[in-house]
Amino acid sequence: MRDIVAGITIAMIIIPQSMAYAELASLPPVYGLYASLIPVSLAAIFGSSRYLATGPVAMVALLTSVAVMSLSNNQENLYVYFAILLAISVGLFQIFLALFKVGNFFDKVPEHVLLGFTSAAAGIIGLTQLHKLFALPKINFDNLFTVLNTYPINSGAILISLLSLLILYLMKYHSKSLFIKNLSVFTAVVISIIISSLFAYSGPIVANIPSGLPDIKIPSYSQLAYSLPMFLMHTIIISLVGFMEAIAIAKALSIKKPEKDDKGVELFKNPSPVETNQELFGQGIANVSSGLSGSFPVSGSFSRSAVNELAGAYSGFSSIITTIIVGLTLMYATPLLYNLPKATLGVVVIFAVLPLIRLKKMYQIFQDDKTKGMIVWVTFLSTLIFPILSLEILTGVHTHIWTGIIFGFILSFIFDKKQTN
């Protein structure tokens, strides 16, 4: 029963989140639902964590957007094609690493490097969504003034954005009920759809979402002939960053005290430690299945995994329940999502990544250990500043955002060699 409750709870979060992350990946919203189907269950079956909720996530979606834009030379008709190829290749690479026991390397990645990187990347993700809140096209520094002078302010989009933000904030941070907290995203989406339908909303909407389950098919790699080196680079980056995110969540949630009933009897023992290579294998299987079912790369979600644990998940069966509900939504409920404002999806992404910007934690690390603190801030600033210098931060299309994590590793090796070894 605990798994059923957890599975239903995650489904109510992942359906709107996955559509928002598909948009972040520069893909139509339906591909987020496809990525929330088979990969969710297979990651739970083949992985080692009973709490890790796999599916579309912001970080990997941003990486996917960067990749498909560069590989396709911004030809939108090729975005889905390259996203599918990336998912399969990322999965195969992760499976390869797992079979050769390379997963143990991820145990040695310095936490402070990841902290600086994820904080900066979360900030970049938030910036890429700002245009949706105002119903504007994608903005970069080259077209900023042109867009602002050409497109009028859409008051409807601004009001929907503010209302969605208010709902998410009040339900998430001012409610004592865990049930109400977990319904925040679902509630914001439902209310936005109702308002959009009743009051002739003029901003961009999700519109038609194809009904039915995705077809399983193997795509052709024929169009990679002239971009294979770049494709492999993106595959490796998405594989490593995606799994670092997943394993960090899985290990954090595995440290949990045994639960007891009223008589003091343990309901279940403390979960066994997460096995890194098995989790890497599970993530690889999930990504291959995501590509074969026509979607983009996936990883473990911070927010959904935490909710899964708080909702009382006992095993990976909760993920199977989530898959069933997403499948039923694809088969019967997609017309209900027609009037969903894209401004609401932008708010959902921004609200999801804000907790990942942990400036206070970075400051505390600097106060406690100047060396680690320097590594955190150099990683953070270089990740954040290089896209700004390339004048493309608002579209997230420049691969220089990964310079930060490289700087972090170099500094960790020089100043913190004992820990990294």
On the 0 to 100 scale, the average pLDDT is: 83
The tally of domains stands at: 1
Question: Which percent bin holds the helix content?
Answer: 55-70%
Biggest sheet architecture:
2 strands, antiparallel
Say what oligomer this is: single chain
CA-atom Rg in angstroms: 21 Å
Large-scale geometry: globular
| Estimated structural class | mainly alpha
For the secondary structure, the number of strands is 4
Low-confidence segments, ≥5 residues, pLDDT <50?
265-270, 388-399
Spatial order of strands in the largest sheet = 1-4
The span between the termini is 44 Å
Account of the protein in words:
Helix 3 runs antiparallel to helix 13. It is globular and about 60 Å long. The strands form 2 sheets. A two-stranded antiparallel sheet has the order 1-4. It has one domain. The chain has 20 helices and 4 strands.
